[in-house]
Amino acid sequence: MERYFSPQLSSLHDLCRQVVERHVLPHAAQVDAQCLWPEHSMRALAEAGLLGLQAPPDVGGHGQGLLALTAMTELIARACPSSALCFGMHCVGTAVIAAKATEHHRERYLRPIAAGRHVTTLALAESGTGAHFYIPSTSLTEQDDAFLVDGEKQFVTNGRHADSYVLSVAPGAYAGEVGDFSCLVVDGDSPGLEWQQPWAGFGMRGNSSLGVKIRHVRVPKRNLLGAQGDQLWYVFEVIAPFFLMAMAGAYLGIAQAALEATGLHLRTRRYAHSGESLADIDALQLRYAAMWVAVEKTRGLVREAAVRGDAGHPEALPFILAAKADAGDTAVQVSNDAMTLCGGIAYRENSRVAQMLRDARASHVMSPTTDLLKLWLGRALLGAPLL
């Protein structure tokens, strides 16, 4: 049991570990090789009751926060990073819906999510704004008791497979400052959602990251989350903490898996001419020790960020910004070192270590990018405006 974990979280973590071992890990290679959306993983997590991780207890959920989210995505990513990303984005969407849910949101979305019958996700990114996902151009117009939504989103994780999408739209006349935008829940079967062709990524190949054209999609006004342009949805208050910590956990899981794969290789590989184990070589011991230190330092930062965020600590934001950036750096560094230390056996096409390196590399380009996070971090630490 980790010292940060409550008894409830420890129990949920053990349950997740069983799901990963029995259902996620056996299909991980196939997910990567064939760019398959990990339906088996999401189904198993649903049957275990884990889709309701962020749903409130009074609708049947577990009511967990950032610490649980990072712990679960780390555990899943050790086996299948694509599954971790799909699960994590579902949890982020759940948290955003729950942040200011009306009775309608609770009954139509949160209760089914808690029961394992509903998958949600975020749809924020747009090609025109790149990493600046907090400046949407997707628009809405009012029509009686509904909104008509028009625009286009990119890189929607769980695209076409989710039951609902938390969509960002421009605040229009309600704009106050950069980062104020409106969110609403769009049902996956809404007419006017035109899903684009599958996108085969370099890494994270199973997350079904699709583009979608939104053509006069009619959404009931009651699906709006908060008020139009509501300050609640200011990017650093609600969406970013859950998204960044979900991703930090996933990349930490990749780093841990790369460390474990390297340790196994060093302990079991021997030279035929001398019988000497790679684990007995001084230079490799030094390299492996440095990998372990990097992973543990990142884990400490991620856990501290999650605990501060859950507690509403006034200085949580710098830790949260740093967590995803540092986890990405560590995942790339450690998986790259694993490729070096594991040698030719790791360099073959689609080896387990090669997959780790490809998946880790996504951390630097997935919005908000590592450079953007470090820029925000510097501004936060210096008391400058983030945007």
Fraction in beta strands? 5-15%
Total DSSP helices: 11
Average pLDDT, all residues = 94
Low-pLDDT residue spans: none
From the coordinates shown, what is the CATH architecture of the largest domain? Up-down Bundle
Largest sheet, strands/sense/barrel: 4 strands, mixed
N to C succession of SSEs: HHHHHHEEEEEEEEHHHHH
CATH homology superfamily name of the largest domain: Butyryl-CoA Dehydrogenase, subunit A, domain 3
Q: Care to describe what's here?
A:
It is a single chain. A hairpin with a 2-residue loop joins strand 2 and strand 3 (146-156). The chain has eleven helices and eight strands. The model has no long low-confidence stretch (mean pLDDT 94). The chain has 387 residues and is α+β, with helices and mostly antiparallel strands. Helix 4 (66-79) packs antiparallel against helix 5, helix 7 runs antiparallel to helix 8 (282-311) and helix 8 (282-311) runs antiparallel to helix 9 (316-342). The strands form two sheets. Strands 1-4-5-8 form a four-stranded mixed beta sheet. It folds into three domains: 7-119, Butyryl-Coa Dehydrogenase, subunit A, domain 1, CATH 1.10.540; 122-233, Butyryl-CoA Dehydrogenase, subunit A, domain 2, CATH 2.40.110; 239-382, Up-down Bundle (Butyryl-CoA Dehydrogenase, subunit A, domain 3), CATH 1.20.140.10.
